[in-house]
Specification:
The structure holds two protein chains of two kinds. Chain A is mainly alpha-helical. Chain A has one domain. Chain A is 85% helix and 0% strand. Chain A starts with a helix and ends with a helix. In chain B, 32% of the residues lie in helices and 25% in strands. In chain B, 39% of the residues are buried. Classes of the chains: A mainly alpha, B alpha/beta. At the A-B interface, helix 1 and helix 6 of A face strand 6 and helix 2 of B.
Chain lengths: 215, 208
Amino acid sequence: MNSIATIVWRDVRQSYASGGTWLPVIFYLSAATLFPFAVGPDRELLLQTGGGILWISALLATLLPLDRLIQPDLENGIYDQLIVRGLSDEMIAAARLVSHWLSFGPPLLLAAFLASGLMGLEGEALGTLLASLAIATPALAGLAVMIASLTAGLKGAGALGGLLLVPLAIPLLIFGAGSLSAQGGSALLFLGAISLMLVAITPFAAGAALSAVRE
Amino acid sequence: MNKGQSTGSNDRLFSEALSCVRGGRILFRGLTFALEPGQAGLLTGPNGVGKSSLLRLLAGLLQPSAGLCKIPANKALCDDRLALDEHLPFEQALRFWAKLDGKGQAEVAAAMVGAGLDHLAEVPVRYFSTGQRQRARLARTYLADARLWLLDEPANGLDTDSVDQLGRALQSHLDDGGIILAASHIPLPIVFDFTLQLQPLEELEACL
């Protein structure tokens, strides 16, 4: 357990120090800033569509760090050395999931909070948006880790990663953006269920990909 | 944990009828050898014959296709991958592995001195030259304080003095009861207890 904490701490520190954390945040804020310019400052329209736009931006922001998640450490032999020390591929993938969420989830939530001001979201709608994103970011981080592991070492991994992630993220988008509408009902619960499932399978799927790439 | 591989608490390296298939090609088969504590083995053979694959297999990174090997649980692999954070100062990059291996500041300093890199402790790893990167790999290996050292071309890119320094480190590891298995085409200044000559399988079959 101690070694997992050491690995997570290294990843998180590296991510914040290299500025890799802030790229999705800046992207997210730019998308949110551009949207009112594009559709006009109609308050009603922004209120109706703003939440959905912020959700789509969150999905696209997930794509940005894909090629930096697994590939550099794999190439550098860090994962090899961890395996030599007796760690399993699944543990490495789980550590990467935790560290990626820590450097992706909280900054994205902060950016969503700032961006919602531009859309005029407030009160209950703002609360629901932040809750749905908070529930979904672990799943988005998990999808990113799985896809980065699967495409590590391939040419054009970035583009392929985008192609793979978008369809897999559709359930999250449906229930996440759905929870914003007045008839949201139990969308948040479904979102939570999908998120838990994705988080639970990430260590095994990504671990299998990591062990396959070594052969 | 792995098929045909057990990492018990035994101190010796032992391989029986070990075979390895990569990319649909048999690299070697029926490899049987043993190394006792304090012994060193040298792997030789032409490029592509499977020296690195054998070392990676013993390190637990590859699965044997047949046979079994018993290796000390406490092992260190030094191959062509640096496994140090390039943008960090050397000492900080080493400290990550020190923490994982349960080592402290004193051991990090000792490993840097052992590899002759103590004067570069504050220099980011990405500025290292070829020889310095090789010495950095060696420092990471010394730091692990493992029973078994699996070394893949440990003298690559080293100057004469550094090869002598490497020889002293290897000798003191053997004196402490450690085991070394090294693949090297540069003569290493220690006495090897045996040499394992890997040969391309086609030639081997032609001889039979």
